[in-house]
Each structure stands twice: as structure tokens, then as C-alpha cells.
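Input.
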Amino acid sequence: MKRYLIPFGTFLLGATFIAGVYFGILTWAQGWEYASSQFALNRWYVVPIWVAFGIQAALYSILRFRLFIPTTNTSHTGVVMGTSGATSTTAMVVCCLHHVTDVLPILGLSAAATFLTRYQRPFMLIGLGTEIIGIIIMLVVLYRERQKLQPVQKLQPVLENK
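Output.
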């Protein structure tokens, strides 16, 4: 039972964490009303990013704690965990990069603010794409490790002795 609760719990924690960062940045920048209005406008982009991040967290816990694959060989999983962490971080930065536009005009960087505001949704799509790539990489590693556990079928001799 515990091996099912750990991935589910990490999914919830990951999705909640990224949602908290999203609302935290927006609330800090402009207030709660602005944060809720931005969420209403971009929910079709933001919610899939949250879900993908939660899925990555769940897959990470499966790989990290070897919940469904009792193997001692973790050479591939270490690489995937690093890739997943970097992918999630990149996706989070890309996702929230456009919110820096709220502060940039104060710093005198209005051209950068205009650029980031104009390409807000493509940045979110890039973030979602990087998360999907991370999920695919972890699923491929899980599949390969699972294939290693399958019993090797013995080859039938071509000529049988009677």
C-alpha cells in the first residue's frame, strides 16, 4: 500500500508546490485579484504545467525509491533524475518568466517587459513541452528496467531429439 501512496503523495506535493510558486509570484507582483484574473485567463496553459510537474514528481519518487522495480542497478535512474530536475526547473523558469514583466518596467527595462508579455503563452508551451520530454524520458527508463526483469525465454532447439 505504501508504494502506491508515495507516488500519489509526491504528485500532490509537486503540483501544490508549483501552484504555490505561481500564485506567490503573481500575488507578490500585483496582488491576489491580479493573480486570480491571470489564472482565469491562462488556466488552459497553467493547469497542464502543474499536472505535468506533479507527474514528474511521482515518477521521480518511483525511480528514486525503486517502488515497482526491485533492481539494484540504478545507473540510468540517476541520469534521469538529474534530467528530470533540470527539466522541471527549466519549465518553472520558463513558465514564470513572463511574470517578471510586472517588475521590469520599474527597473527601466520596458522593452524586455514588452517582449516577455507578448510571448507569454509560447513560453508556457515551451515549459510544458520540456516537462513532457522529462516525463517521456522517465517512462522510457521505467520501461527498460521493467523489460530487464522479464524472464528470458529459452530458445527452443531447432532440431529436437526423439
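Residues 32-65 form the longest helix (34 residues).
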